[in-house]
């Protein structure tokens, strides 16, 4: 889950020294129809612990419906007196209609686009000027209100691309502060707040901002200082996640510093020359970074990185330079004081012999494009303001910069074109470089991958981009499709050593299956953990499966569920399906058909084939949803049209029984035959039933027996459970004769089911 957090502090001047402190905390995780949330309970508990340490009387609640939420909140409100201090904490789903922010109770269903008003009635407003939760606190006359609203940035009610959208906005609506108000957002406008970091262990349950904020909520600390410290830590940690930008924003309209508890020891701000210089330097670095973002050019990030190597955005600049820039486009002075020299980094794969120059190399490079960019003048002006306490960098004129590039060096545009061609031909659609659009491609599904064209495209990309692990991973995938396992292993290993999560995952699967290597689950688990720690959902799902099955790790349903949930919350359909199955079976979690249905539904929306079938089963049986044969037929048909044999069998059965469709034996037989052609045992037996009873075909004992024998050989035990009354006597006698001819039966041909007949049929299953 990507997170959004707003902290609202409303300060009233009439604060009483004897004011009591109260905290109301709600963490919603288990939603009936919306996606479950991974760490809302843990975040709520962390705030509860921190606030108790600050002298708050804490009311901690979890997973409440609308009625339960209002009952708990108004019961809490009865404890609050005018002049008290109140903390209101919410962690769970939230949404906004563009004017008002709402929290989402656990029973809320996903509405149709035309029913936004129903959604407003089903959820609870935070502040609307009259009956929102924060309005109620204001009306109570509290002296100090601290509200932490931690909700999903991406609304759970937004529709998929290409479908109608309910009129909601993305995330919650920023609230402009009034006098005496302090507001903090855990991510700036257009940014996403991280739920976890690649280095997190499964034991880390707190979101990135929460873990940094709560550790500063302690006696002797000013609230403003706690926010600033959490802001700095969150920004640096987020930047370590592939250059992710998460800069918590805050708005302070208070007139004094807020001491959380104890003696904070007020110290007036320093006015020394050193402090002024530091402030000026930080302002200059922020301006340089802003210009670099606007320019979106290598020379701009290079200048910022050289001048401001210790600034909060330096890791972002490093990631930009490493991933997008030709070394020739970067000033040599950038190598003097960069973080790359002070912190370990993965070693790039061995250089590949450059390809011969090609016509694309004559296209303008990114350095050339800077000539028309006015940002160079802005840089020169900004850098001239430096006081000499840091090395400065000269902005190289575009013509000189172009001349400094060796004629044989590939241009940036040629590199990018080759990257895109390789990614289009062999890129995995869920590769992080494609998801983030650092490589602008949608990738290609395995079934559509053409190894014949992909291999040369990715070889050329590897020649032009020797330090890009993703290219090695895509080339390995192309060789994998061509079944050249040794070449695939070689390139997977190169990319995996450079921390490419897709390569680590695919290499792990080769070790798990023993493809081209000696089968080794231990190595597979090690590789999957490395990829999962980077937040790669396919690796998280596969690691969950290893824990579910107990392969090279202790069997642990709870850990399996945890990994499945992490990947499911990243919208990985296979993880959503597996998580639904765990809820259906009660593995590692309390059995719940409703939650299983919700996760199957999410996977089905992504066209997960088995999830389509499961929705048909749940609608047919009324598991977690109102029983509805028409809906069951609809979902069975979607899966059957994609040749899922068990869905074809179930759809045939619905036609045979006339459930959700007009009864049709001919249609039933048509679907049974499609499934039987794929070796489906139940469908094969069901065809035999139609011949035995003469439904949709002429009655024929011999053909019925042939299908029964084929079904038994495929593993169906259904005929073993039939009593003598369940058989047409002539068909059972024909079955006994056939079993005798096969040397499996020596009893009487009497049309009665006895131990000998059942033993002979079981021999077919075991044979």
Write up this protein.
Residues 19-94 form the Caspase family p20 domain. This is Caspase family p20 domain-containing protein. By secondary structure, the protein is of the alpha/beta class. Among the domains are: 3-252, 3-Layer(aba) Sandwich (Rossmann fold), CATH 3.40.50; 273-406, no CATH class. The protein contains 31 helices and ten strands. The strands form two sheets. It has a seven-stranded mixed beta sheet with strand order 3-2-4-8-1-9-10, with helices on both faces. α5 packs antiparallel against α6 (223-239) and α15 runs antiparallel to α16 (469-481). The protein is globular, with a radius of gyration of 32 Å. The protein starts with a strand and ends with a helix. The model is unreliable at 1-5, 9-17, 159-170, 268-282, 328-376 and 382-408 (pLDDT under 50).
